[in-house]
Amino acid sequence: MSNESMAMRIRDNVPDAERGRECSAAIGALFTGVFTMLDSWRTAVEKAGADNATTRIDSLVYSLVEPELTVADPLVIGAGFIAAPETALSQALHFAWWLGPLSDNPLLGTTTKPSRLDLASREYAEYLRDFRAFEWYQVPETTRAGHITGPYVDHLCTCDYILTLTVPVGVGGSMRGVVGADILVRRLEPEVLPLLRATESAIALVSSSGRVILSVSPTLRVGSIVSEASAASRGWDAVPCPGTQLKLLMGETI
């Protein structure tokens, strides 16, 4: 469904609070679609055995992510499987991760087909030697559920502002890694901004930590953080986006 048709689902003849709920539902549906895709990848990797032969897993993962990375105007800019540090597969820090075609990327230049992330060529990748404390891995490992990390600047791959969606992979009751997808925040703009503008309130999409992802309010800049206490003290409404940890902040004075 295009962003224009999604925005048209937000009705004109209802109170703005209801429009906000319809907006949050449409955003929730957008991200739920990505999580549904990741769930299908998880099933495929778990079925194959996430600590199976490296080349076999890599081939499988590429066959899963390549179609999503090469569609016209893809939502996903990077995707793949990252093996748990304690598995045999990941003794050498195993990232089966690919980037979609890029334009003027500071690291890779312009590419026309998916490129595999090469950690050996990244001078500052040493911090990944133990990534278990990173949010995109730690939260799925703890909750055994999908998670959205960010927005944050991705210095490893895109050198851009992104969201990372990850889902845990388990085999025999043990954590074997995560499957995930990166989405450029600027790629979300044509999908989400029409939804936000379909309401009459000042409104912003924020992460679970209160960081602003997208906004149509001049007082809430992208990247800034709004605490729950601050939002409540100003009388702003927080509207959850179903199926995600994201929410909308709405208010006439935002």
Write the layout of secondary structure elements.
Blueprint: H1 3-8, H2 16-48, H3 54-69, E1 78-83, E2 95-99, E3 115-116, H4 135-143, E4 147-154, E5 160-171, E6 174-184, H5 185-197, E7 202-206, E8 212-215, H6 228-233, E9 237-240, E10 247-251
Antiparallel strand pairs: 1-2, 1-6, 2-3, 4-5, 5-6, 7-8, 7-10, 9-10
Helix pairs in contact: 2-3
Radius of gyration: 19 Å
Q: Please work out how many helical segments DSSP would assign.
A: 6
CATH class of the domain at 31-186: Alpha Beta
Mean pLDDT: 86
Question: In terms of per-residue confidence, which ranges show pLDDT below 50 for 5 or more consecutive residues?
Answer: none
Oligomer: single chain
Biggest sheet character: 6 strands, antiparallel
Look up the CATH topology of the domain at 31-186: Beta-Lactamase
The CATH homologous superfamily of the domain at 31-186 corresponds to PAS domain
Distance between the termini: 29 Å
Order of helices and strands: HHHEEEHEEEHEEHEE
Strand order of the largest sheet: 3-2-1-6-5-4
Classify the helix fraction into a percent range.
Answer: 25-40%
Strand proportion, as a percent range, falls in 15-25%
Number of strands: 10
- The coarse silhouette is globular
Describe the fold and architecture.
With 254 residues, the chain is of the alpha+beta class. The protein has a domain at 31-186: 2-Layer Sandwich (Beta-Lactamase), CATH 3.30.450. It has helices at 3-8, 16-48, 54-69, 135-143, 185-197, 228-233; strands spanning 78-83, 95-99, 115-116, 147-154, 160-171, 174-184, 202-206, 212-215, 237-240, 247-251. Strand 7 (202-206) and strand 8 form a beta hairpin. The longest helix has 33 residues, at 16-48.
